[in-house]
């Protein structure tokens, strides 16, 4: 497994940014004690990569709070949080860092102390807007509850800079997360070996080497290899032409019911169609939902999430949905930062309405 | 105005509902946060544990300054701070869930119980309480990246004990541990036994020395004897390989000791001299092993290593990246193992001498005890040509440490909360078991649901007609032991009323004082024999159970086995099995597992860290 860090970090060091963040070459006794149970899972080299990682988190509603918790606990070098929105009463029902008297104050600033308490070793800071930060200085950029157009824009910028990217939102009881680790290394399962007869001399030698490896290395390790992966962009993933002949048949199996309300909400964000009045918004989303089904040639009869339930897409974020989605986002973030095994490709949708967790690979192959 | 939409609908369902959460650790912290935020207003938390620094990577309600404090207490305080309003009530008990305080009346208060536990014994217990009181039970568990949630409802779904999952802790055959280790774990297990032998409670059965009665070696022992009486040709003809007997063994020295010396006796006589103990374990005893030539026909024979000859370098091992990051991850050289061994023995002997009862208990977090085991394990590994491991790795194995992270706990707790919401909404039919996978399956599911199994009609915890077979010795076991150890402790019968099935004679009455005089009688005295039947009723829950007795003449007055399957064929098979077992018992083969439980005592399993 390669122990070199991904490009964004190297750029960072070269630029002298965060030069003051000199990280010691050994894990301190304190870190070893606190992180013991996780080091026993992902190993100390992975832990070392985490403690060199810098994450940008945009959005600190319930989902953002869960992501912040999960990443700060695991021992990052630093996290910068952006959320200048003002705290509402709704927020206090899902962002557990907020005190009751924080209503009306800025979300990120009001949460910072609570987040810091989780792990004094992580350097935390706030920024006012995305414009003022240098995306390329981060190991990972995570957007939580940001509108479609912003997610698309930042995804494009991160791709250009080679920065790992996650975009996610929770709408009431339902949420999604999009993963883009284009150009980064992961450990992937090896392709199945070719039949012996087809091997040529060169391969013969390689086969012997593999066999030798087999006797000294545990069986498990032999099945894996390090690979640089390519991921599609946010725009590509969410704008598949499902009417194309090749996809028409497969579409039903590939598109979970939870996709349609989520995509409808994203379309509403795209064109700023929501009013803030729940009744009207439920009607809007219902129209858009019907449109999505048509766009994908799918049938209302096959859906397990129906317009009667669309009021559950508004109002406060359900804590459990934030916890589940935030848990997976935390897990995949750690995988991405440490170059771990088999990252999720590339769109996860969770719905507490029909209890489904689906990972979709869009656009489909 | 603030839009609370669905929340108002849901709030009505939660109103007045009391909830119990057992366990306030990894899953518990996440779960408490979820249910508080979801709007549950009356919560009871029970946990007997205190906070450890290694909890802080995931049990996020706890801070550094809380180390040593009660998890129940600290999590409750944190939960109250997160509560949506002052209406939320959270109370806690820093106690064991097994406490009598938490009886049926207690459990009946709750609309459901959340299990956030880390051991089977407690899970079984809560399961029984919930099944008896018909309170839905939501059980979650995690291990590394994996997790599971099962919600259980009496009469509708499987309960936690319907399917006897035999997840016994891995146990290894005695001779593998004592004679022929082939993996580091065998050496680690052996080393823990050595610790107990030397510093623990006195046990005349020395189970760390070579087992000279090893079946595999038996035939050839006669050849060894033949060789010693001068029949070399016969030995060669029989293909006996000569061990590395360049070194002289006690036997060749003419002492004619057939068995290795008792480790504890030797240690005490020598005043716990580290080097002498070392040479006993790693030289003398190895020579005894080498005498059992048959063991080494197809295995590399062990090579004894005297203390003075321990190598100062690790052959073929270079310092890993891991070791550079943390010294605990470095693999000690053989010489370092020796030094650690000596240092640990010296520390432990002093501690033993200073202690009131002269008994030390092994604990993975006790530095000297842990280093002792690590050093021993590595030295033994070297002798048997097994690669050594770092202190860090050995601690995982010896301490049965389950790796744990925040994200898996967060996901599982989230799923448990959704189940909780289903139950209060009256959607019990929508409950499904959930298994968290490492990667999505072919359908893209990473949490795989499956409809809950139907209850097992023969389950001795939740079925109306429970039928249980008990293997025991009616000539020796007393009525009192039947009541206390079997019915109450093992089978969870709160207040047993027991009748002999054919005569309807009452042997045990739940009414105080009624059957006290019978407690010392043997079961045989009340007419029980092979195939005898009892009817057991639980006065507390009203549950009834039929018991079939399978006589086992070789059992003593405490031993018993609970068998849950009672078909006609089943009985026959069981009788055959029983006969076989009696033959095996005669051979004194002891299975060495982590808990050193005699094979025949009731199953109470635990997988704690």
From TrEMBL, chain A:
Ranges where the record places region Disordered: 202-222
Record field: compositional bias (Basic and acidic residues): 203-216
GO MF annotation list: SUMO activating enzyme activity
GO biological process, one term: protein sumoylation
Domain THIF-type NAD/FAD binding fold per the UniProt entry, residue ranges: 35-361
GO CC terms, sorted: cytoplasm; SUMO activating enzyme complex
One Pfam assignment: ThiF
InterPro entries, A to Z: ThiF/MoeB/HesA, ThiF_NAD_FAD-bd, Ubiquitin-activating_enz
UniProt similarity note: Belongs to the ubiquitin-activating E1 family.
Name of the featured protein: THIF-type NAD/FAD binding fold domain-containing protein
Species per Swiss-Prot/TrEMBL record: Pristionchus fissidentatus
Native organism taxonomy: Eukaryota, Metazoa, Ecdysozoa, Nematoda, Chromadorea
TrEMBL record, chain B:
GO cellular component, one term: cytoplasm
Active site residues per record: 175 (glycyl thioester intermediate)
Basic and acidic residues bias (residue ranges): 249-261, 591-609
Residues binding ATP: 23-28, 47, 55-58, 71, 96-97, 118-123
Region span, Disordered: 227-266, 586-609
Domain annotation THIF-type NAD/FAD binding fold: ranges: 6-441
Annotated GO MF terms: ATP binding; metal ion binding; SUMO activating enzyme activity
Biased amino acid composition, Polar residues: 239-248
UniProt keyword Metal-binding present: yes
Biological processes per GO annotation: protein sumoylation
Extent of the signal sequence: none
Binding site for Zn(2+): 159, 162, 459, 462
Residues covered by the Ubiquitin/SUMO-activating enzyme ubiquitin-like domain: 470-554
Alphabetical UniProt keywords: ATP-binding, Metal-binding, Nucleotide-binding, Ubl conjugation pathway, Zinc
Pfam families: ThiF, UAE_UbL
UniProt keyword annotation of Metal-binding present: yes
Pathways per UniProt: Protein modification; protein sumoylation
Family the UniProt entry places it in: Belongs to the ubiquitin-activating E1 family.
Protein name: SUMO-activating enzyme subunit
